[in-house]
Amino acid sequence: MILLNQLLFGPTSETVMYPAYANWIRSHRDLPLRLNQWCNVVRWEFKNPQPFLRTREFLWQEGHTAFANKKDADAEVLAILELYRRKKSEKEKFAGGDYTTTCEGFIPAVGRGIQGATSHHLGQNFARMFGIECENENKEKQLVYQNSWVLPPEPLVYGYGT
């Protein structure tokens, strides 16, 4: 495919949002921080888009959180994805995350799986990268623990009316 104009595609919302987190979070009293957004996403990592199932550009909902401790971050990953049945492997997980949980479906007509939703425990990896710290109860600086999750629109399309 030849593009007439050059385009810039960012990898994920984290790289846009998390520098602001570093400015917003100062104390454990600022946590948990929970943000929700709807945004368009463009993906070029697969060869054969499927209309209504997996297109190159689509709207999705994603959540991003920050916690003072791993225990609370872990609890939210499981709460968001209570019905998810498995964790992604090291090769499948979100790059930069500690672990990823997912709910996927198989579409026999096209012989492919499709992502239903994912939830990622990001640990302190992005906090370290973007300097997102809080002052804990002992007035010591510490990195926050973060999560993100997404529900793409495809489950809404193929689940409608069921």
From TrEMBL:
Keyword hit for Cell membrane: no
InterPro entries: aa-tRNA-synt_IIb (IPR002314), aa-tRNA-synth_II (IPR006195), aa-tRNA-synth_II/BPL/LPL (IPR045864), Pro-tRNA-ligase_IIa (IPR002316), Pro-tRNA-ligase_IIa_arc-type (IPR004499)
One Gene Ontology MF term: ATP binding
Catalyzed chemical reaction(s): tRNA(Pro) + L-proline + ATP = L-prolyl-tRNA(Pro) + AMP + diphosphate
EC identifiers of the protein: 6.1.1.15
TM region(s), chain numbering: none
GO terms for cellular component: aminoacyl-tRNA synthetase multienzyme complex; cytoplasm
Superkingdom of origin: Eukaryota
Enzyme class: ligase
One of the Pfam families matching this protein, by short name: tRNA-synt_2b
One example of a Gene Ontology biological process annotation: prolyl-tRNA aminoacylation
Domain Aminoacyl-transfer RNA synthetases class-II family profile: residue ranges: 29-86
Alphabetical UniProt keywords: Aminoacyl-tRNA synthetase, ATP-binding, Ligase, Nucleotide-binding
PANTHER family: BIFUNCTIONAL GLUTAMATE_PROLINE--TRNA LIGASE, PROLYL-TRNA SYNTHETASE
Similarity field: Belongs to the class-II aminoacyl-tRNA synthetase family.
Name of the protein in question: proline--tRNA ligase
